[in-house]
Design brief:
15 strands, mainly beta, two-stranded antiparallel ribbon, single chain, nine-stranded antiparallel beta sheet, 5 helices
Length: 332
Amino acid sequence: MYVGNHGTHEEISNAALNAFSPTPFANLPTTVPDGRFGVVANAQNIANSNYNGLTVTANHSFSGGFQFQASYTWSHALDEISNNSLSPFGLNVTGLYADVVYPENPFNVHQFNYGNADYDIRNNFTMNYVWSDAFRHITHWGPNALMKGWSFSGTIFRHSGLPFTPYSSNDTNTLQGTNFGSQSNPQYIFANASVSPNDVSCSSAAATLSPSGAGNPCLLGPSSANPQFTDPVNGYGNTRRNQYRGPGYFDTDFAIEKGFGIPKWEGAQFSLGARFFNLFNHPNFNFPVMNTDSSSFGTIISTVGTPTSIYGSGLGADSSPRAIQLQAKFQF
């Protein structure tokens, strides 16, 4: 199944209309355009977005009580700003991560910002399965009290990494002092890159980072002997928004249950079981640090939570380890 859409005249905010730079910087004036005001922001309906996706699904029920549903989606989402600049989709932590919600060039929104959407996932696979009365479909031997009523079920999630933007905190902070955004709403200056984001060593390395960032030939900090990301000089960074990707994601849950019939009560059943969230205790890593001026640039310093944790989303990565839930049910 193909799904596609195109959006035009979407809202975008721009918080650098009264920005300037005493030292020459790209197309900014050297004095404040209007001294009566500080940061001046406006919202316009000039942004665009595109989405193209191809989904393949499969489902089948086998005679042995096993049934499954699986879905794979290849897609590509692009825009200038995700979520209309109103609600950051990703991380926005001072000195570490930047979720870009404003244009880098305030006078040309499309130039550096049109790129992968914050939620662009190229490859996504999901599957759920149920095996009802499993042992009785394998053999008729053994007492019903022991062999009947066993059920197994589970889910599998696998998707490629989300995009991110390397940025310069030095340039961003300097311009914030001259009305280029504010501390609470940064208008980030992207980093300069000497390596194309389409280079295989870059795009693949970001998806296979270890927690320490070891073995990554792409995300090297500016203090490196051979820096591949540097602060821009007197202008905007040459990287386009969201051209690098963080680690992929994998999670699987599993449940086992044994049902017991209740004598003389047709249709009623008591069952005991257990649910395993993140069955293999598999860690899923967060974005690498995006700030090229940080000593931790390019390294991954945290994990992310699972989508189905019994603790909810409020705990974040604290809920990511394997969790086991015991359950008892009475159905009638």
